Amino acid sequence: MAQKLLDALMLRSCSHEFSWPRRAADSQYYQVCLLCAVEYKYDWQTMRRTERVDRAAESSITRKGRATTKKPSWVPRARRLRLDAAVRYRVKNLGTWYDGVVENLSQSGVLLHGPQQFPDNTLVEMVFEMPEEISGQKNSSVLCQGRIIRTRKAQESPDGVGLAASILDYKFLH
What we know:
Elements: H1 2-11, E1 22-23, E2 29-32, E3 39-43, E4 48-52, H2 55-59, E5 81-91, E6 98-105, E7 109-114, E8 123-130, H3 132-135, E9 140-152, E10 161-173
Antiparallel strand pairs: 1-2, 2-3, 3-4, 5-6, 5-8, 6-7, 7-10, 8-9, 9-10
């Protein structure tokens, strides 16, 4: 990683390893390169980075007071990226890992199937390969901290227990 950073500084080019999409104060999504800190707008509809964000230009435009725009009472469901990726998961900081399969991934969380059921609100750790569409890199393993939001019982899911988890934090494993 140090060599990549040095190459980026000397040659002014970067291979870009992007963070999970983040939401800005204006409710727009963006991604940050973990190596060079450049930011790009992110479109969840197409699941692609769009244009580069110029923070210097944005910081010169400031408003006094709060925006008066009314927030919508209905928010559409987050777009899902279908996957069939292996995942290892466990209760946070406990030793037993369970093997499962990620069914889909979205800006709000992950849906996985596995042999072990956990109660709602359980803090979990998950390790899986982040799709190239999101990370910008192949073979990007990520360790996610999450919270179980809901559970689908084994009789409703033939592949074991279905677990929906919101993603609270993550880090790329290199």
